[in-house]
Design a protein that fits this description.
The chain has 260 residues and is an alpha/beta fold. It has one domain: P-loop containing nucleotide triphosphate hydrolases (Rossmann fold). It has helices at residues 46-59, 74-85, 90-115, 125-135, 140-150, 186-193, 207-223, 237-250, and strands at 20-21, 34-39, 64-68, 118-122, 178-183, 228-232. It has a six-stranded mixed sheet with strand order 1-3-4-2-5-6, with helices on both faces. The model is unreliable at 1-31 (pLDDT under 50). The chain binds adenosine-5'-triphosphate (ATP) and the ligand Cc1cn([C@H]2C[C@H](O)[C@@H](COP(=O)(O)O)O2)c(=O)[nH]c1=O. The ligand Cc1cn([C@H]2C[C@H](O)[C@@H](COP(=O)(O)O)O2)c(=O)[nH]c1=O is lined by residues 42, 68-70, 97, 122-123, 127-128, 131-132, 202. Adenosine-5'-triphosphate (ATP) is lined by residues 40, 42-48, 192, 196, 236-237, 240.
């Protein structure tokens, strides 16, 4: 497994807004940091299971940073509100999402990985390719360029004491070690979400939008098979949980005994 980060430096103060859970402050230990994202169309069932995974990691003594995108910092949460509530064109939407992501990486994700935390992130860049790329039809080449700029290790990397900037020896693009993809037919997701909450700008899109988003996720999995774990999210909650459990146990990241 390629480490996500080699080292990090951030001149910005870390924020509590990343919902860091438990664990004392420790020396940076990049080799133990684990970055896991959760993806799927709205209503696929991600939130139902992320907290259970956080508990499982914590019961094995790991510090967990539980966070989400867009969001995870004070600034990124403001940007999230704009993106979810205000009408805008797809380029503006993509830029705001990547701006939020940069702040989130600098302030929360990179420092957490350096501490050796398990970072559980409800959505990351695959969502941008699925929603803005496949869903909105925005140019994926532009998204790929933004991904390289925003997720570049340069500027996040420094000496282990956090003082001197250090050029990475090779270009590092920070991405999850594992992406758990909750694959659910859009019609099923719509049924699950019906009447459950006031829909935001994405959730109020027609089912055809979510068909495109779902295809976008399928394409992402094809492009990154080593990173993606597909979960059949149409199963009942217990079966979905067992599928997730199996992925983490097989990777050796959790003991079977830590999981219900
Ligand atoms: N396996 C399941 N079978 C039936 N309903 C489920 C299942 N998993 C979750 N749900 C229900 O579906 C709804 C959406 O689940 P959840 O909020 O976990 O999805 P999500 O992927 O986090 O959605 P979003 O990304 O839109 O926030 C909730 O009402 C939840 O209780
Ligand atoms: C990261 C990211 C998210 N979105 C969309 C997808 C969802 O509709 C919302 C977030 O809501 P959730 O309840 O927290 O899942 O934002 C997007 O369009 N592009 C992205 O990169």
């Amino acid at each position: 497994m390629t480490p996500t980060l080699v080292a990090s430096r951030t001149t910005l103060p870390p924020e509590g807004a990343g919902l860091a859970l438990g664990g004392p402050a420790r020396r940076p230990s990049h080799s133990q940091g684990l970055f896991i994202s959760f993806e799927g169309i709205d209503g696929a069932g991600k939130s139902t299971h992320i907290a259970g995974l956080a508990d499982a990691f914590q019961s094995e003594g790991r510090a967990v940073t539980l966070t989400r995108e867009p969001g995870g910092t004070l600034l990124a949460e403001k940007l999230r509100n704009m993106v979810l509530d205000d009408a805008m064109d797809p380029l503006t939407e993509s830029l705001l999402i990547f701006a939020a992501r940069r702040d989130h990486l600098v302030r929360v994700i990179a420092p957490a990985l350096l501490r050796g935390d398990v970072v559980l992130c409800d959505r990351f860049t695959d969502a941008t390719f699925a929603y803005q790329g496949a869903g909105r039809g925005f140019d994926v080449k532009v998204l790929a360029t933004l991904e390289r700029w925003v997720q570049s290790g340069e500027g996040l990397l420094g000496d282990p004491a956090g003082n001197q900037p250090m050029k990475p020896e090779v270009e590092t693009v920070i991405e999850p070690h594992l992406t758990v993809w909750f694959d659910l037919p859009p019609e099923e997701a719509a049924l699950r979400l019906a009447d459950s909450r006031v829909p935001d700008r994405f959730e109020s899109q027609p089912v055809e939008f979510f068909r495109r988003v779902a295809r976008g996720y399928a394409e992402r999995q094809l492009g990154h098979p080593e990173r993606f774990a597909r979960i059949d999210a149409s199963q009942n909650r217990e079966a979905v949980w067992q599928g997730i459990r199996q992925v983490f146990v097989e990777k050796g990241w959790l003991q079977a005994a830590a999981l219900p």
